[in-house]
Specification:
heterodimer; A: FAD/NAD(P)-binding domain; D-Amino Acid Oxidase, Chain A, domain 2; 6-stranded mixed β-sheet; globular; B: 71 residues; alpha+beta; Alpha-Beta Plaits; 4 strands
């Protein structure tokens, strides 16, 4: 048997990996975190929104430098321009500075004793004769690779999840289960410290445009559209989803933004499908976005990633104490996750699949009918009330909306 | 195989997340394509938010790319 260099190797130093590392180290494990990026948190490829809930639950006090501004709630806008403003204590949050926030989470892990190595890429998962992971071949700064061994490998790789694939997890995404996004940081934009979301099949087919307020009259203005949407010709004449084209169109038609400057172009692809079937195998776990633990409605993954880091670390510590890293032992994390956050994610996925069938005219009816209370009920998974209200004015929607009513699936 | 215009690439790894053949990976600070694994499905082209990926169906060796695609 090979000698172990660490108790656990975490691949990826994002919110999931850093949270896992912090708690595992605190629980007495020898933790190595590797991140392929030269700098933790860079490049940013995210709208940077995070609700207050998860940090409060973990007892973390976010330093001022980690966020650009605080938000009070959200403003949801229908195709006809009708707004629903939703602002309560539960809707507070931050627009983060991800570069600084992610690094802060890693620093917390380091303070608890975890070892973090940047610019270090996992090249290959090492396996024993039975195919169980025993370590990772890693390469620092593109130099010659070497082997590091641990009885537990945690993939917190995010969207790419190449090592998770090598460990046998089905992490590849279909076009239908991703949104492709483009985003500008823009200035000046007078905002009301609300997250603004614009819906409509013309504006953003199977997705939405977002305006996330930032400090000093700045805003992240972005769009996410279904990966299977075709709205442009790509290089080589291939038909595909061109989010930038639609975002530019939206900006051209927005009184405030049409003359604003762009300070940064960025983009990304986010998972909006179902989580992977199993999060664990013998000697390995997949956490966060790598496990597709992302909200299918808004594509947010930071809160879920951190929550999952807590759950996975608790199980890893138990496994470490019993020296048992079998799938059976690690499966508890899978069960705990699916019982709680998993339920919410499943409801949101159902909602997403219903929303994508709604026409702009029906959308307008829905926006004219619903209030902020209904919006809250929907986000809490209590669909019955709002659905009844919508159907009262437009019964023909029953075919689409019945999927949301229990027992009628 | 595909080509990637690295200048415009925003390193979002969307292409590798949808690649069924694991033929695109981040290496160092850029995306790297492995033509020998590529199955010419074009999903990466369709998804790329920065529109920097171009597909050359049937080409397996970068030497066989048309002159404008090399470099």
């Amino acid at each position: 048997m090979t000698k172990n260099d660490h108790d656990v190797i975490v691949i990826g130093g994002g919110p999931a990996g850093a949270t896992f590392a912090r708690l595992a180290a605190q629980g007495g494990m020898d933790v190595l975190v590797i991140d392929k990026r030269k700098e933790i948190g860079v490049p940013v490829r995210c709208g940077e929104g995070l609700g207050v809930g998860e940090l409060v639950k973990q007892g973390l006090d976010i330093p001022k430098r980690c966020y650009s501004t605080q938000v009070e709630g959200s403003k949801v806008v229908g195709p006809n321009g009708r707004e629903i403003i939703w602002k309560t204590d539960d809707t507070k949050g931050w627009i983060l500075e991800r570069k600084i926030f992610d690094k802060w989470l890693c620093e917390l892990a380091v303070e608890k004793g975890a070892k973090v190595k940047t610019y270090t890429r996992a090249v290959e998962v090492l396996k024993d004769g039975k195919g169980k992971p025993t370590g990772v071949k890693i390469s620092h700064g593109g130099r010659e690779s070497y082997d590091v061994h641990a009885p537990l490998i945690v993939s917190a790789e995010g969207m790419e999840s190449m090592m998770a694939r090598q460990m046998g997890f089905k992490t590849v995404h279909s076009l239908y289960d991703v949104d492709t996004c483009y985003e500008y940081e823009m200035k000046p934009y007078d905002h009301e410290n609300l997250i603004e979301l614009y819906f409509g099949n013309k504006i953003a087919p199977r997705g939405y445009v977002w305006i996330f307020p930032k400090a000093d009259k700045k805003a992240n203005v972005g769009i996410g559209i279904g990966g299977n949407v075709v709205n442009g010709k790509k290089l080589g004449g291939v038909d595909g989803a061109a989010p930038k084209v639609l975002l530019d169109e939206f900006i051209k038609n927005n009184d405030q933004l049409k003359d604003a400057s762009t300070l940064l172009d960025f983009g990304g692809v986010i998972s909006v499908g179902a989580p992977i079937n199993e999060f664990v195998q013998d000697n390995c776990m997949v956490i966060g976005t790598a496990a597709k633990q992302v909200d299918p409605i808004h594509g947010g993954g930071i809160g879920l990633a951190m929550e999952c880091g807590v759950m996975a670390a608790a199980v890893a510590i138990k496994a470490h104490e019993k020296k048992d890293y079998s799938k059976k032992m690690l499966m508890e994390y899978d069960k705990v996750w699916r019982a709680e956050p998993g339920k919410v994610v499943a409801e949101r996925l159902l909602l997403r699949k219903v929303i994508e069938k709604v026409s702009d005219d029906d959308f307008n009816h829905i926006f004219n009918t619903l209030t902020d209370h209904d919006l809250k009920a929907i986000m809490d998974g209590k669909f019955a009330g709002p659905v009844t209200k919508v159907l009262a004015g437009r019964p023909q929607l029953i075919g689409i909306l019945s999927a949301l009513i229990p027992g009628k699936k | 195989m595909i080509t990637i215009k690295h200048d415009g690439c925003i390193l979002c790894v969307g292409c590798s997340s949808v690649c069924p053949a694991s033929a695109i990976e981040v290496v160092g600070t850029r995306m790297k394509h492995f033509p020998e694994k590529c199955i010419d499905c074009g999903l990466c082209v369709k998804i790329c938010p920065a529109n920097v990926i171009c597909m050359y169906k049937g080409v397996k060796n970068p030497k066989d790319l048309p002159p404008e695609a090399r470099g």
